[in-house]
Amino acid sequence: MLVPQAADARFRRMVRETAGGLPREFWWLWVSTLVNRLGAFVVTFLSLYLTGDRGYSASYAGLVASLFGLGAAVSSIVAGILTDRIGRRPTLVAAQVGTALFTAVLGFTDGQVAIAVVAFLVGFCNNATRPAISAIIADIVPAADRGRAYSLNFWAINLGFGLSAAVAGLIATYGYLTLFLLDALSTLLCAVVIFVRIPETRPDAPAERADEPAVGLGTVVRDSRFMAVVGLTLLIALVMQQSSTTLPVDMGEQGITSSQYGLVISLNGLLIVLLQIPLTRWVEGRSRTAMLVAAALLIGWGFGMTALAGASAWWYAVTVAVWTIGEIGYTPTLMGLVAELSPPQARGRYQGVYSLSWSLALFLGPAVGGVVLDHAGGGVLWGTCGVCGTVAALGYALLGRRSGAPAGTGAVAAVAVAAPVTAAGKAPAEAEQAPTGV
């Protein structure tokens, strides 16, 4: 009996160290994220719906996917500004209500132009939630716990997505309209939870705080080291985007069936659900620079190894495992870094510009990857992914080495990148307190 009791005690301690001490508002936000992803059916099955159910061409489905990504890119900036100007909660609630509305409308829409327009609006509203959610977490969670909070939020996203993908195919047998309406209903439920349970968390405006410099969108763009982080993120995001675009095409050309692809890519979500929390605890106290460098290399060359897979589904599974481990270490570490680089009164703008890198990848990734695959072949495509990961790793290493930068925004960026990862992904106190305006 002593062994089970000891194991139970270790498990309880792990849960307490991983999830304990976070504000109640965070957990309501976490529940909202999980419910939202549990109902996120439409994005996953949109291309299949357009080609299989509506009879449109694959090229048209690709165009709609790109317009969805374009809407997400535009909303990154717009939602970031609104998050700072009108508040986190109203921006988030409006974005979720808009997503629910246009998702339901999309299920009833007919005609190529109309579907394309509504898909753009769905992408716009859906991505508009990101800056607000990230800003709320940074507002309500102490710096010493932000890394854990972002890891738990990332875990909820993938847990919900994995479960929704598993049941969406079954629900689709009753008609794709059911998917659209359930997606809309779950998103509307999240809006209600946010409205009822999450208070406004936006700090006082700069005009009301003499000690805080005013920060506008131009200030964010002129923050050269932060923009360097955004650019490096774009490289990694372009690589990650290939998992749902060129990877299935290349696997199909190698004779891998769609069912095999489904099993291989499902390994991504499974590993995240199983390893996110243990790996988050393992990296505590380790160099943030080293984490970002290692993660970028794992992601880049995880995809790069795909060039050697041939017709082996097992080898594809190995490559997915490699870049998934990189993703697990990369995303929460990077989000903690971005939160620390963002002045409290401008967190929405900073998070919006950061989110833009992922949105641009969603827009550009399918087109760029498809062109390279068609005209240069899989070997060049996957080799390019490895190069992108290497360039990103070198970039993070250079940023981490510049910890002796002069005071100001650049100094905060350098110190934050070089800082060790703790339970929060916390940078030194001087980085938390240093001026970030220009």
Question: Can you give me a brief rundown of this structure?
Answer:
The protein is 78% helix and 1% strand. It has helices spanning 2-19, 24-38, 42-53, 58-85, 88-108, 112-127, 129-140, 146-172, 176-197, 217-222, 224-241, 246-253, 258-282, 288-304, 313-341, 347-376, 378-401, 409-418, 429-433, and strands at residues 286-287, 420-421.
Descriptive report:
- The structure is a single chain.
- The protein is mostly helical and 438 residues long.
- It folds into two domains: 24-203, Growth Hormone, Chain: A (Up-down Bundle), CATH 1.20.1250; 217-438, Up-down Bundle (Growth Hormone, Chain: A), CATH 1.20.1250.
- It has helices at residues 2-19, 24-38, 42-53, 58-85, 88-108, 112-127, 129-140, 146-172, 176-197, 217-222, 224-241, 246-253, 258-282, 288-304, 313-341, 347-376, 378-401, 409-418, 429-433, and strands at 286-287, 420-421.
- A two-stranded antiparallel sheet has the order 1-2.
- Helix 4 packs parallel to helix 7 and helix 14 (288-304) packs antiparallel against helix 17 (378-401).
- The longest helix is centred in the C-terminal third of the chain and has 30 residues, at 347-376.
- It is globular and about 55 Å long.
- 52% of the residues are buried.
- Residues 403-413 and 422-438 have low confidence and may be disordered.
Which structural traits does this protein have?
438 residues; mainly alpha; Growth Hormone, Chain: A; 2 domains; 19 helices; 2 strands; 78% helix; disordered C terminus
